């Protein structure tokens, strides 16, 4: 939990999280405070990674400070500010409970605070910003905490090409669909030769930028890259069905049927569209047999017809009788997927965890 008027972006889960001061990485405000209570599962301890601690210097950090404390044992870490920074980027505690206290008085400069944490169940390196060199090995594995999607920093590239090595690593992992932002998780990737141009894409609620040549690029893998890469094949669609479809009569009096079969991504010309005015419209895909479905790509109708879906829900079924709404990793509410903003671009969304089903709506 967090409390106070100095709290910025915060996402706290039992296994990992990310927190920052208000306005980060802009100058943090005067006369504010924020208190975060971090709680790991019983029997585990907390590992804290200092992404950025930039508080205006003062004697004994009296004006602005970051202080960490274990309320059960009375152990304290800090206070920290610009002239008294943590001695190492990673703090390994012996406690499952840590209080993070951020206090400010009057000041002129300072980005504030960016911090992440994980538990002793994930002893691998905790990665956040990833704007420094990754490990020297070609293939490496890191742990990305929950909440990296909204931290400051850019990414260049897309899941198919890979990402410019100056991209914020864990943010790129969310964009690539290898982890869910609300959970974080283990990320395996390789560092390979860079390419001339990185194309932008919208995927999993994030926009990447178009980027120029880099010496190295980051490629994410869904299994350890010492083994064969995970299969990312496009699943074959056996049949399409829909709640309705549009029978259009154009200006020349010709009929055009926007039937469900035209919904395949590779279809040229017009696509599927529900009957105008239809409520709760749906499109259904039959995969022929039960399959492991890891994501979806959507696109608008065509350049000639500027129609597209801006958001949608997903349901799945094994028998076409009982349907289960997709709730994602949170499991609390039906997930709303962010769709397209125009009729030309493709938008990817990952299913974390995957869906095992024959029918998808």
TrEMBL record:
Q: Which GO terms describe its molecular function?
A: signaling receptor activity
Locate the CUB domain: which residues? 7-120
Q: Which residues form the LCCL domain?
A: 115-218
Identify the SMART domains for this entry.
CUB, LCCL
Q: List the disulfide bonds.
A: 7-34
Under InterPro entries, the record lists: CUB_dom, FA58C, Galactose-bd-like_sf, LCCL, LCCL_sf, Neuropilin_MCO_CoagFactor, Sperma_CUB_dom_sf
Q: Where in the cell is it found?
A: Membrane
Its membrane topology is listed as: Single-pass type I membrane protein
Could you list this entry's UniProt keywords, alphabetically sorted: Disulfide bond, Membrane, Phosphoprotein, Transmembrane, Transmembrane helix
A GO CC annotation given for this chain: plasma membrane
Task: Identify this protein by name.
Answer: DCBD1 protein
Look up and give the organism this protein is from.
Answer: Anthoscopus minutus (Southern penduline-tit)
